[in-house]
């Protein structure tokens, strides 16, 4: 499902983030997966959500690059915070948006954005406490409640960057062209669940709807990347423009120069066919870069 599109200030770091030492940056870069350059078909033939501008397909050419095989985990983000003292926007402002179905007592948190009653403003919710006071961030789960600016702060420390949208999709497809998912075009290959998306009758959670899962849950794609569909939306570098995407061959596109928000890719544990089936490898949405939520994180990249 789409995230909460509500501006929350500029989301920037409370103090300048200094780069990590050379050894730390080299170690982090070494973990990235090499993605070959070349052409691929980006986007979908047709979109259920025209405003997402994930269609039509267009031929894109990319130079080789590197990308993380997993979304940034809580353990890795904690290492960054310990080294820099970075304070996320959710921590600085004292609250963030949590899916009501994950709260033990949702009525204790009655404030919701207009038209989105399944999101609740929870005081004390942040990456350390993803469901509010008393909850704990699991080391091997993706970090959430981070803004685009928080993700950029991590990148500055790590000596890395957010992938462009085209790089993200190229890597997410795992070498398969014109398919809906990293493994093919069937949502449940062989009848099995292959990604972390909503299983109940949205917004009423089913037994399997427990929020995030570990960053290495489910099988990796052909390039070795995990969870490029479902689990958490992932911030990318590009702006989101409220206009159709260009057609024809593109070379290393970086997105529009202006736009109302930043792009998020991949869907999350809240995506469901009845409301928001943005769990395809071509799916995209936009959110304000200063808006943290409980279903959005990021993964990092670097030039080849």
TrEMBL record:
<dbReference type="GO" id="GO:0120147">
    <property type="term" value="F:formylglycine-generating oxidase activity"/>
</dbReference>
<feature type="domain" description="Sulfatase-modifying factor enzyme-like">
    <location>
        <begin position="30"/>
        <end position="301"/>
    </location>
</feature>
<protein>
    <submittedName>
        <fullName>Formylglycine-generating enzyme, required for sulfatase activity, contains SUMF1/FGE domain</fullName>
    </submittedName>
</protein>
<dbReference type="InterPro" id="IPR051043">
    <property type="entry name" value="Sulfatase_Mod_Factor_Kinase"/>
</dbReference>
<dbReference type="Pfam" id="PF03781">
    <property type="entry name" value="FGE-sulfatase"/>
</dbReference>
<dbReference type="InterPro" id="IPR005532">
    <property type="entry name" value="SUMF_dom"/>
</dbReference>
<dbReference type="InterPro" id="IPR042095">
    <property type="entry name" value="SUMF_sf"/>
</dbReference>
<feature type="region of interest" description="Disordered">
    <location>
        <begin position="1"/>
        <end position="20"/>
    </location>
</feature>
<dbReference type="InterPro" id="IPR016187">
    <property type="entry name" value="CTDL_fold"/>
</dbReference>
